[in-house]
Amino acid sequence: MAIVSFPSIEKADEEGLLALGGDLEIPSLLLAYKQGIFPWPLGADYPLAWFSPDPRGILRHKDLLISKSLKKILRQEKFEVKFNHDFPSVILNCAKSNNRKDQNGTWITEDIILSYINLHFAGHAYSVETYFEDKLVGGMYGVQIGAYVSGESMFYTRSNASKVALVSLMEYLHQQKIDWLDTQLINPFLEKMGALEISRVDYIKMLDKSIKRKVSKDFFSQ
Q1: Per-residue pLDDT reduced to its tens digit, 5-38
Q2: Span 125-141, average pLDDT
């Protein structure tokens, strides 16, 4: 049964933990993201955890940092970038490679994989794929509601492939007049790319404005 309400985000603890339990049905996920909440499984021995940290991580297009070496790689166009071409493969690869906050084992569980694939086919989760010689070598996925876009996880099997995916996403969003990406948290990689932290209060203002903005039905259909 879908979740009908969450506690007020002000009740989250210092680590951002807000609630335990519930499900990952599409209505539950949409309700969560619209309120600045996201699921973060802590392990098989724990109920499903929901977080709303303060501060929040974001990456704005104007702050995007592209190194000289990455600019060279982008100019060479050795990678082919696609959107929503193979969401299942992207999230499965992320599950193989990703750990959040040095957890033992991936936080992208089988339930997360299935739920976000369902969310993708419902039109609220996207993927970016990076190909080299017709082989998927990197990418990322996230949630999209209106003009709100999050970056959930990324992977690469060839150097710089995930960076190319992120830069391509940011440029595409900028073309659509969307100038920020919700990164939820900050890690060294995102910090090097220009991500920063803002207060949850400011984040919620940006979130509310973005969710209310309508986008075309073929958004991310490239």
Answers
A1: 999 999 999 999 999 999 999 999 999 999 999 9
A2: 97
Domains contained in the chain, number? 2
Contact 193, 67 (CB under 8 A): no
Residues 20 and 113 in one domain: no
Phi, psi of 221 (to 5 degrees): -95, 5
Domain holding 101: CATH number? 3.40.630.70
Q: Which residues contact 14 (CB under 8 A, 6 or more apart)?
A: none
Residues 195 and 143 grouped into a single domain: yes
Query: Do residues 53 and 200 make contact, with C-beta atoms less than 8 angstroms apart?
Result: yes
* Model confidence pLDDT, tens digit, residues 135-156: 999 999 999 999 999 999 999 9
Instruction: Name the E strands within the chain.
Output: 17-20, 38-39, 49-51, 56-60, 80-83, 125-132, 135-145, 148-149, 153-156, 180-184, 196-198
